[in-house]
Amino acid sequence: MIRFVHKISAFLLTVIMVGMLLIACESSLPQADSQSPTANPNPTPITALPPVASPDGELSAYPAKLPPLPYDYGALEKAIDAETMKLHHDAHHASYVNNLNNALKRYPDLQKNSVEALLKDLNKVPEDIRTKVRNNGGGHLNHTIFWQIMSPQGGGEPTGAIAQEINQTFGSFDAFKKQFNAAGGDRFGSGWVWLVRNPQGKLQIVSTANQDNPITEGLYPILGNDVWEHAYYLRYRNRRPEYLNNWWNVVNWSEINRRNQISSTK
User: Fold this and answer.
1) Which residues does residue 197 pair with via DSSP β-bridges, in sequence order?
2) Cβ of 173: how many Cβ atoms within 10 Å?
């Protein structure tokens, strides 16, 4: 009996020692820090960008105003017919302006912002009007840019600093046009194709859906083409590639150089 008690005691003592050894080993292992930062689900904050609507300044959100076309409706016939220009400017762009004003009527604090400021930080826009501001503020901004970067005297090869940078980045102007047109042609449904300057300071071709503007991703739009059907359908029907090719005949390289310069000095 005494021998049995000794065996039990030895067994219990062994169990206790092993348990203490395991606890000591566990405490020596590195522990997860409950204060360690986790992966940030939000994108990198958008850096400060120069004025996007125009190198001269940002676009007032309220009251939003329809800018006049800087040329006659038929002035861009090399690429876009007069009827399309009238419909595009007087109906579509005007609708974005009116819808943006209606969305902001009940929010005096938001009315103090520029369109760019609203689009850069859409999470601060009340949820009940966020989609309206995104679509219509974006539509107003995109088209304000669009009218400026076209001209009756436009077209031809790019000149100045933008020509040199396009060659350095894409190899040649022809290679750039091919990539740009492909991105515009591949945009499913409605949207835009852009030449932007990215946060690393490099030129990049991107496309956006609907009326989204690249500034929502921290990109500065230098040049952009509208590939919504209302931009070309009356003349080109479903021949978007033909529209994309002809559009280069009205690109305002002087204005593109202005936008390129301000984007490269931010």
Assistant:
1) 203, 220
2) 16
